[in-house]
Write a structure and sequence with these properties.
Elements lengths: L1 E6 L30 E17 L4 E14 L7 E7 L13 H9 L3 E5 L8 H8 L2 H27 L6 E11 L1 H11 L9 H4 L27 E7 L16 E6 L9 E6 L2 E8 L1 H11 L3 E6 L10 H19 L6 E11 L2 E11 L2 E9 L6 E7 L8 E6 L6 E9 L4 E3 L3 E3 L8 E3 L6 E5 L6 E6 L4 E6 L4 E5 L6 E8 L5 E9 L1
Parallel strand pairs: 4-5, 4-6, 6-7, 7-8, 8-11
Antiparallel strand pairs: 1-2, 2-3, 3-5, 9-10, 12-13, 13-16, 14-15, 14-17, 17-18, 17-19, 20-21, 21-24, 22-23, 22-25, 25-26
Helix pairs in contact: 3-4
Length: about 500
């Protein structure tokens, strides 16, 4: 067991935490913001043993299953929500470290996270072809991977009940992953019994039954004392499910993200493809998972990447948003504050130099107000405006405009309840589509000139014909007055810079 302290700058700075007791503390932005600077990673923790199958020879091979565990460094909390993630790789490749970035980022927000081994197709080209051309073998791989995930859940439940080494809350376990890992996690969370899974009656029995047979050898076995029930949410990144009817209203909520041009796992419905092989098995993708969840009233969210392929979720700008959105999605679940506001949409658009925020709620109960928060980097947020809640039981629509943002800016909603509790929306990026129209008058001028069309924070500078800086001041509103009596008569230059120091305009001014 190797333990290393990772000192990270990933996704911004931290907030200070005060000492906490065993009660889940969701204050100070925990579970949404980056409240920890560093993360402790423990590698190669064994959570079970099993065998993998060589389908070409029908022989089995022993496999030791391990996990890597991530936790906020110096965290005093004794019971934390746990997120278990499974790596992508079409059930034929991949490794735990592939999800290192996700686990670290979520641990910095206060979660305990883990990425686990699961059994892959036995390493040979013949086996890959056999599996992808036989829906029974592919379903068998999903059941094996699901059994390994269930063993990891049992491992953490046992630890919570005994030594509490990992300080997790066994009632707040989230599962998820990417691609094949997401497929395994979705089927683990949404299959309630053996008969419900397609081909389940045929495949569960040789794999140890519904809980699987990945375990420690006697007398240290965890079966049947512990099971894998009670998953509270699913993170589905470019995954799919064999049948959306597996998803019921009593099942855990799901956050999904996928490119709508995914060429490997269908965004809607179709066959799985990998490495030039088209499987004979079909899946329902993230869009139809959301459709099913909406139809049955299951809390869910889908971040679609327009035109995105299978790897688009791994592009930095999308990974950043997925982590941010998933954290905001999970916070009300793990903090027990899913109500009183159910947010169904939130967007930010540019209109004539204004940031226009629109959001819609499905329900509002004992809702106080919405703080509009802005950020120049997507990490550090400050309050920009307050909008009173309509507190409408059947939901409401909101539109609110803010100005003064001439550079790309991130916005989110802080949804505040009447008792002071709050949750956050996902983060939306605002890209301004206009440049302020700066005017200087009178021109020529004697004692004073006025600059209009400014935005808060812009820098106005006066430069002489020799290029020397004569005067500089930041704008606090849309106009600024320049005193001229101390300047020599003749040609002057008025330069306006945005909040990042980029020159927007250079205008001539005659002082007479």
């Amino acid at each position: 067991m190797n333990k290393t302290l990772l000192l990270l700058s990933l996704l911004g700075a931290s907030f200070t935490l005060k000492a906490q007791d065993n009660v889940l503390d969701c204050s100070n932005g925990r579970y949404t913001d980056n409240v920890f600077e560093s993360v402790t990673k423990t590698t190669d923790i064994i959570f079970g043993y099993n065998t993998t199958t060589d389908y070409s020879t029908q022989t089995t091979h022993d496999q030791t299953l391990k996990l890597d565990f991530y936790e906020p460094a110096g965290d005093p909390v004794e019971k934390r929500p746990l997120i278990i993630l499974m790596f992508p790789g079409a059930f034929v490749q991949g490794q735990r470290s592939d999800l290192d970035q996700f686990c670290i980022a979520l641990a910095r927000k206060g979660y305990a996270t883990a990425t686990i081994d699961y059994r892959l197709v036995f390493n040979s080209p013949e086996n890959q072809s056999i599996v992808f051309n036989n829906p029974i073998f592919l379903a068998d791989e999903v059941i094996k991977a699901s059994a390994d995930l269930k063993a990891a859940i049992r491992f953490f439940k046992h630890d919570a009940a005994t030594s509490n080494t990992y300080k997790i809350d066994p009632t707040k376990i989230v599962v998820g992953g990417g691609s094949a890992g997401a497929i395994a996690a979705l089927h683990t969370a949404y299959t309630d019994d053996e008969a419900e899974f397609p081909l389940g009656a045929l495949l569960y029995a040789p794999n140890g039954g519904f809980e699987g047979n990945t375990d420690f050898p006697a007398p240290n076995n965890l079966l049947p004392t512990y099971n894998a029930s009670g998953i509270v949410a699913v993170l589905n990144i470019a995954g799919g499910i064999a049948d959306t009817n597996l998803i019921d209203a009593h099942n855990p909520p799901v956050y999904s993200s996928q490119g709508d041009a995914d060429e490997v796992v269908p965004y809607n419905f179709g066959v799985i493809s990998y490495g030039g092989l088209n499987s004979t098995a079909s899946l329902f993708g993230s869009h139809l998972i959301q459709t099913r969840a909406n139809n049955i009233g299951l809390y869910n969210e889908l971040y679609t990447i327009p035109g995105g392929g299978h790897e688009s979720t791994l592009e930095p700008q999308h990974t950043f948003k997925i982590i941010s959105d998933a954290s905001a999605f999970l916070t009300p679940i793990v903090c027990g504050t899913l109500m009183p506001v159910t947010l169904t949409s939130f967007s930010v658009q540019s209109n004539n130099c204004l940031a226009v925020l629109r959001w819609q709620t499905a329900t509002e109960k004992q809702s106080s107000h919405y703080d509009i928060e802005s950020s120049a980097d997507g990490v550090h947020f400050t309050k920009a405006a307050v909008v009173n809640s309509k507190n409408a039981g059947t939901g409401a629509d909101y539109t609110f405009s803010v100005n003064g943002y001439t550079q790309p800016t991130w916005f989110r909603l802080k949804m505040v309840d009447q008792d002071g509790g709050f949750t956050f929306s996902s983060v939306q990026k605002f890209n301004p589509t206009c440049v302020a129209s700066v005017q200087i008058y009178p021109n020529p001028a004697q004692a004073q000139a006025t600059v209009s069309g400014l935005q808060r924070g812009m820098q106005v500078q006066m430069i002489d014909a020799a290029g020397r800086l004569l005067w500089s001041q930041k704008a606090t509103n849309n106009t600024l007055h320049i005193p001229l009596t101390s300047f020599a008569k003749g040609l002057l230059m008025v330069q306006v810079k945005d909040t990042n120091g980029k020159v927007l305009t250079n205008s001539k001014l005659i002082r007479n």
